[in-house]
Amino acid sequence: MSAAKAKKSEGGSRAVLADRRFAAGVLVFVILVFTPIGARLSLGRAVDRVENKFFTGVDGRGAVAEYIGDAENAATGLISLGDKYEAAGEATGELRFDKSVLNDVMEGRDISEYSSANAMVVSSFGALRDALMSLQLSEQDAADLEMYSNQFANAQGAIPHSGYNEAAEEFTRGTYNRFPAKLIGSLMGVDPPRTFQ
């Protein structure tokens, strides 16, 4: 082999070696940057799928969001009844305010806000119901009070049987709390699915 060919061959080997080192560096960079991003997106989508069951239901059962909507309808009826009685004015105003908060929350998809707003409505609904029960109501109003109270109680009573909290807790135990999901969640800011309190 001539000296020129040997030199060319040696230079070519260096070029190939440099290209391989560059390619390996690019590959390592891509793995280090994009693997955590992909893992975060994947875990985030899995959490979103679980939380979506709050709005769509679990295994054909009614959704928590629908039951809250039913309770909100019963609260609307109770407010209309409370408006007839001056002595129930304060309790009626409290339920009206709490129901407006719930209405605002129902336009979004924040399960924690649903939980807080629903708890407020449960409390003020009970206060107005008790205030009306202490009054002398007409026969029709007494029947309406019983109807709205039953509707509200049925809607609230269905929530624990919706299966949503169980689905969220099962995902947290079986997927989110296991390696590597827990590490990805804590490092990348992905929270487990929120339960409804």
Helix content: over 70%
Order of helices and strands: HHHHHHH
Distance between the termini: 82 Å
Please tell me the overall pLDDT: 84
Question: Main β-sheet, in a few words?
Answer: none
C-alpha Rg, in Å?
Answer: 30 Å
Give the overall form. Answer: elongated
Find the structural class using helix and strand composition: mainly alpha
Low-confidence runs: 26-35
The number of distinct helices, counting runs of at least 4 residues, comes to 7
Share in β-strands: under 5%
Number of strands: 0
Q: How many domain units? A: 2
Question: What's the SSE blueprint?
Answer:
Elements: H1 3-56, H2 64-82, H3 89-105, H4 111-133, H5 139-158, H6 164-176, H7 181-188
Helix pairs in contact: 1-6, 1-7, 2-3, 2-4, 2-5, 3-4, 4-5
Give an overview of the whole structure.
By secondary structure, this protein is mainly alpha-helical. The chain has two domains: 3-58 and 165-188, no CATH class; 64-161. The protein contains seven helices and no strands. It has helices at 3-56, 64-82, 89-105, 111-133, 139-158, 164-176, 181-188. α1 (3-56) crosses α7 (181-188) and α2 (64-82) runs antiparallel to α5 (139-158). The longest helix has 54 residues, at 3-56. The radius of gyration is 30 Å and the shape is elongated. The chain starts with a helix and ends in a 9-residue tail after the last helix. Residues 26-35 have low confidence and may be disordered.
